[in-house]
Design goal:
Phosphorylase Kinase, domain 1, 4Fe-4S, metal ion binding, molybdenum, binds iron/sulfur cluster, globular, seven-stranded mixed beta sheet, single chain
Length: 712
């Protein structure tokens, strides 16, 4: 028996795991007591990790045109077909669609190949569905996508506000930490703002079950309320921000009276004012927000409305204070670090970061190769599949994600995939929904085999270690990308033999060798303190929060503690936010508001978690949660079957009548895929409206009709 330390591959908490290995099997997993994200805790999903392993359902051989093949043939086919599309139609006909499940090293190599050497800007990720609005809000407010807080802040706060976050189910170890903090400090208050009453409400001193989509109204109302009651931190505003008057004027365009705000949010005015008072009267406030805020056509504005209130009260850059966006996936943050979004170039730089193209070009150039970086941003996830639908993109490499289930309008996504002349799929699981569209399938390594790093929601880089060899001919994604790069003539720039070499290059680029780069950028994103690690040091790397550099060799717990932001003048920007309703309008044909989300014991499209009977026991079937009054009016009963009709299809599920559900609204889980239930694709119900700034789809605000299904 041996023990190996690694990181959980599920949510953005990024818990450390100790795996017990006997012969060639992981027989047990425990929380790593030394990991600062979880200090030994694990949730149900994490503690069942070893139950989801094994060779069943794994892809173990490459497949070319439906026939099992070998790696050489498959890699030759990938390279020659990508080249043919590029030669015929130009680089912009190529695209990659990645995943927050990939390791940072995989992401780095994919970005370098597609943007740097194939020259296409169209590389995006399923993290677009998760935190893109928070990224955009950070950039608008702070001048850079940087999360100010750390998990300890939840324990140091006087008030924790959870907005659009079912922490108890979706980030359970953070919920456990908050629960313990509350037990230790009876003065710590928790406010939950969510249309649904969830298990998270058990911790709530105050629950605000607001109308879906009214978050921006609530937080612009809070800003106006603070101004009216002289609860602003004028000194902080003056010294560290710009744009306050415009932000306040926008907030005051709607009636700023508590009664009016409460009416617009469908809340009790007294409870709302209690929240306003608590927020304004405490300095140490953390507002933790997640998908309920982000997955909206005004998600970026909602994020900025929250950040505005923190800036206006000086509640940022202090222990126990700040707006805190929590990512859904284990490495959504790592992808942001290495250019894994279509609007990024590389290493946190955008296309319009001064001098960025030149610097990345010089950094990636070799003796004989010069990168051909695109001029500007590429298509974001939803737009990417629309470009495929139009025939503009004709070659797509999908890695570790299933857009045929998870994107809005899965009917259109599937049609686009069917039409795309070249679809390459790299995955560890034989994922029937997607493989149906694949011309070439590459078997990838999975958790316990992958070797590299991930970064969690508090900017903490942790090692995910390769504990077992990949089964059959499964290989690491970075390796497959490098092999294709070599076949395309770019071998000189992709000669990595180990993930530590990729990490080293990423760390050096983040630090802008030779002291190049804007000061603020260097201050925030520099991990050059981790450059130069040899294999042994890389393997032994302990969890550490960026930035990590000469000034902060042990990492950085909190950002903006000196009140300087990454804008040219160092001032944070307050954004004028005007509340607007969801784009998916309700009407007589589709009168119910649809909310989608996770359940406690499943992960994404269930390819792994459904392998554990223990996890399946929690919610064994697709379901539709509905308020008792609506159930009665629509003639459906607990445990009966019902059908939802949405923008692009139907969803059949078992009815769960819940008093936690608001009237006029229904909730469905997002997990069930075509293999488990082809008639319960939540993506089919959602129309493809996106936030105009972030490109994040409006997955929390579908419009559906519900019909009872007769039981035969
Ligand atoms: Fe894994 Fe998240 Fe659970 Fe931690 S909280 S064990 S990272 S799923």
């Amino acid at each position: 028996m041996r023990e190996a330390r690694t990181t959980c591959p599920y949510c953005g908490v990024g818990c450390g795991v100790v795996a017990s290995v006997e012969k060639s099997e992981i027989v047990d997993v425990q929380g790593d007591p030394q990991h600062p994200a979880n200090f030994g805790r694990l949730c149900v999903k994490g503690s069942a990790l070893h139950e989801t392993l094994g060779h069943g359902g794994r892809l173990t051989r490459p497949i070319v045109d439906g026939v099992e093949s070998d790696w050489d043939t498959a890699l030759d086919a990938v390279a020659s077909r990508l080249r043919a599309v590029r030669d015929a139609l130009g680089p912009e006909a190529l695209a990659a669609y990645l995943s927050g499940q990939l390791l940072t090293e995989d992401y780095y190599v994919a970005n370098k190949l597609f943007k740097g050497f194939l020259g296409t800007p169209h590389l995006d990720t399923n993290s677009r569905l998760c935190m893109a609005s928070a990224v955009a809000a950070h950039k608008r407010a702070f001048g850079a996508d940087a999360v100010p807080c750390c998990y300890e802040d939840l324990e140091e706060a006087e008030l924790v506000v959870l907005v659009g976050s079912n922490l108890a189910w979706n980030h359970p170890v953070l919920y456990q930490r908050l629960k313990v903090a509350k037990q230790r400090n009876p003065l710590l208050r928790v406010v939950v703002i969510d249309p649904r009453v969830t298990d998270t409400c058990e911790l709530a001193d105050l629950y605000l079950g607001l109308k879906p989509g009214s978050d921006a109204r609530l937080f612009t109302g809070l800003l106006a309320w603070m101004a009216a009651r002289n609860k602003l931190d004028r000194v902080y505003l003056e010294a560290h921000t710009q744009g306050f008057e415009e932000a306040l004027a926008a907030a005051q365009e709607q009636d700023a009276g508590v009664e009016a705000i409460a009416a617009d949010c469908d809340l009790d005015a007294e409870r709302l004012e209690t929240f306003f008072y608590w927020f304004a009267s405490h300095l140490h406030v953390v507002t933790l927000f997640s998908q309920g805020v982000n997955q909206s056509t005004s998600g970026t504005d909602k994020g900025n409305a929250i950040i505005n209130c923190h800036l206006a009260g000086g509640k940022i850059g202090l222990p126990g204070a700040g707006p805190f966006s929590i990512t859904g996936q284990p490495n959504a943050m790592g992808g942001r670090e290495v250019g894994g979004l279509a609007n990024q170039l590389a290493a946190h730089m955008d296309y319009d970061t001064p001098g960025a193209r030149d610097r990345v070009t010089r950094f990636w150039a070799t003796e004989r190769l010069v990168p051909c970086l695109p001029e500007g941003p590429g298509h974001k996830a939803v737009a990417l599949f629309e470009a495929i639908e139009r025939g503009e993109v004709q070659a797509l490499w999908i890695m570790a994600t299933n857009p045929a289930v998870s994107l809005p309008r899965t009917d259109r996504v599937r049609a686009a995939l069917a039409k795309c002349p070249l679809v390459i799929v790299s995955d560890c699981m034989a994922n029937a929904d997607l493989l149906a569209y694949a011309d070439i399938v590459l078997p990838a390594s999975s958790w316990s085999e992958k070797d590299g790093t991930v970064t969690n929601s508090e900017r903490r880089i942790s090692r995910q270690r390769g504990i077992l060899p990949p089964p059959g001919e499964a290989r690491h994604d970075w390796w497959a990308l490098c092999e294709v790069a070599k076949r395309l003539g770019f071998g000189e720039a992709f000669g990595y033999t180990h993930p530590s070499e990729i990490f080293d290059e990423h760390a050096r680029l983040s630090g802008f060798e030779n002291g190049e780069g804007p000061d603020e950028w260097r201050r925030l994103f520099d991990i050059s303190g981790l450059a130069g690690l040899d294999r042994a040091a890389y393997d032994a790397l302990e969890p550490i929060q960026w930035p990590v550099n000469a000034a902060a060799p042990r990492g950085t717990a909190r950002l903006f503690i000196d009140g300087r932001f990454a804008t040219p003048d160092g001032l944070a920007r307050m954004v004028a936010v005007r509340s607007r309703p969801p784009a998916q309008a309700l009407d007589a044909a589709r009168p119910l508001r649809l909310n989608t989300g996770r359940v406690r014991d499943q992960w994404h499209t269930m390819t792994r978690t459904a392998r554990s009977p223990r996890l399946m026991n929690h919610r064994a079937e697709p379901f539709i949660e509905i308020a008792p009054e609506d159930a009665a009016a629509l003639g459906v009963e607990e445990q009966g079957l019902a059908c939802l009709q949405g923008a692009g299809g139907r969803y059949v599920g078992r009815v769960r009548v819940s008093r936690g559900q608001r009237r006029g609204e229904v909730f469905v889980p997002m997990h069930w895929n075509g293999y488990f239930s082809g008639s319960a694709l939540s993506g089919a119900l959602i129309d493809a409206h996106v936030d105009p700034v972030s490109g994040q789809p409006e997955s929390k605000h579908g419009a559906v009709a519900l019909d009872p299904l007769p039981v035969e």
